[in-house]
Write a structure and sequence with these properties.
Layout lengths: L1 E8 L4 E8 L5 E6 L8 H16 L4 E6 L10 H8 L6 H19 L2 E7 L7 H10 L6 E4 L2 E4 L5 E8 L16 H10 L6 E6 L5 H16 L5
Parallel strand pairs: 3-4, 3-5, 5-8, 8-9
Antiparallel strand pairs: 1-2, 6-7
Helix pairs in contact: 1-6
The structure holds flavin mononucleotide.
Length: 228
């Protein structure tokens, strides 16, 4: 990106313009998926992550996508078929395809991706699954080679702000029922991002004291995030 600068040349007594290159902007994609609006913990924590990075990174260009106010449809058979066949698109499919293209481009062009991810029924909300279905696209974010799948989205920083009602840490009775953090690790690992940074607020449904403690712990983890 360049800045157009206007200056007066006193020798020639004229006005000139020059282009000065600026430092490249970092792009951040912020996704929220909680249905609980202002009462959402994952939204609060993902907001704090973005605020922290805005503070730390000059010229951060943030794109926000709320998957509950503007939900993506379930991936349709026609959508998948249109990727490999030269077929007619009716208007509904055309709109679905161009929204999917926009969602994928947002992801591909982002340097940093921040996702507010609540646990619903042991896994991610279906709104977030519809987004994942637009991101995992062969030839764009992964490909199959002679040795198996290879991720193509390497180099992005992904930060997951996770909230869940109970406790699912290693060694807890519910550990085997955790299909959300493990699922998201698999998704991002598959496309070449093996180590997303994960901030967890858990025990949210246990009671007000634990909720408060979990939120404070998560916000402290946000404050400790590396700047860039
Ligand atoms: C529909 C629904 C399903 C839920 N299912 C689970 C669950 O399976 N396990 C769990 O620990 N908490 C569950 N919870 C509690 C949420 O994980 C908890 O409220 C968390 O804070 C949700 O994130 P949010 O506040 O950002 O929406 C559920 C909550 C809702 C609304």
């Amino acid at each position: 990106m360049c800045l157009l600068v206007r200056f007066v040349d006193s020798h020639l007594n004229s006005i000139s313009h020059i282009l000065i290159p600026t430092v490249n902007e970092m792009k951040l994609l912020h996704i929220d998926a909680s249905i609980l609006g202002d009462n959402s913990v994952s939204r609060r924590v993902s907001d704090a992550v973005v605020a922290r990075l805005r503070e730390a990174i000059p010229n951060l260009d943030v794109t926000y996508r709320d998957l509950t106010t503007a939900p993506l449809s379930h991936l349709s058979g026609a959508n998948v078929a249109s990727r490999s066949a030269n077929m007619e698109h009716d208007q509904a499919l055309q709109e679905e395809l161009s929204l999917g293209h926009q969602v994928l481009e947002e992801f591909l062009t982002a340097d940093i991706v921040v996702i507010g991810a609540p646990m619903y029924n042991f896994t991610i909300p279906s709104q977030l699954k519809a987004w994942v279905d637009r991101i995992l696209v062969a030839g764009k974010t992964f490909q199959y080679g002679p040795t198996g799948p290879e991720g193509l989205a390497k180099g992005k920083r992904v930060i997951l702000a996770i909230s869940r009602g109970g406790f699912y840490g290693a060694g807890t009775p519910n550990a085997a029922a955790e299909h959300m953090e493990t699922y998201l690790r698999t998704v991002f690992g598959f496309i070449g991002i093996p180590a997303p940074e994960i901030i967890v607020a858990e025990g949210i449904a246990v009671g007000p004291d634990q909720r408060q403690k979990a939120i404070e712990g998560a916000l402290q983890a946000v404050a400790n995030l590396r700047a860039a």
